[in-house]
Write a structure and sequence with these properties.
MetI-like fold; single chain; 10 helices; mainly alpha; 273 residues
Length: 273
Amino acid sequence: MPKSKNYNFIFGAVIACFMSAIILMGIFWTPYGPDTMNSSARKEPPSITHILGTDDFGRDIFSRIVKGAGTTFGAAAAIVAIGAVTGILLGAVTGYYGGWLDDLLMRISDIITAFPSILLALVVISILGRGKHYVIVAFGILFIPGFARIARSEFARCKNLDYVRSAQLMGVSNIRIMFVHILPNTMRVLLSAVAIGFNNAVLAEASMSYLGIGVQPPEASLGRMLSESQTYFFSTPWYAMSAGTAVVLLVLGFGLLSDGLSEHRHKGVKGSA
């Protein structure tokens, strides 16, 4: 029988590539300066000159969307990098070795996950201060337990498999077994977790910026733009719609990628059974 196409992965990849291309373009070029104000072009509707219109300061919305998407993407990627790298390392050690260290780290993880992440982030940010970097640090720490649990589960499962036992009998070091033998066999699960984590990180950064404690003006951020556009929604609806659409596309693209990776993983498991 022919294999069914993984449409979630295909559509997710297309949307993610499109948004990545927009973000990459914004690094090198935007039609106008994202922070350039023009009092004579305030609240202009979409046109050939300004394809997504202008905001209440006369700034080009398309230029700010491109820059804002890059800011949100970068912050989300940094959050996931902190959470994933630290969490996977901790999960690998605890899952492979077990014992008292496993119990200790899992209890700490239980304590952290027992509280709402937004509440804990607000507490951390209130101590450290406002700003994008503090949001990244706060949510990066809060993402660690989730990745640690997933990695712990996978390493605990794999350490009893035949290929690991064979490597142990051959005298291969534990470090090499963990990161050369076991880690590659957990990548399907971990990549799916990273895609889900990226979605959550995008929403987390956008939420904090929307509340005014994330990215600070004049730097563009999708969450900050949604907050700014709320006041002028009825007079300049294209502002809120543009920023909202950008957030939806970012989340949708990587959400479908995550679903596609999960579907592929489940098919792989069934096929090997």
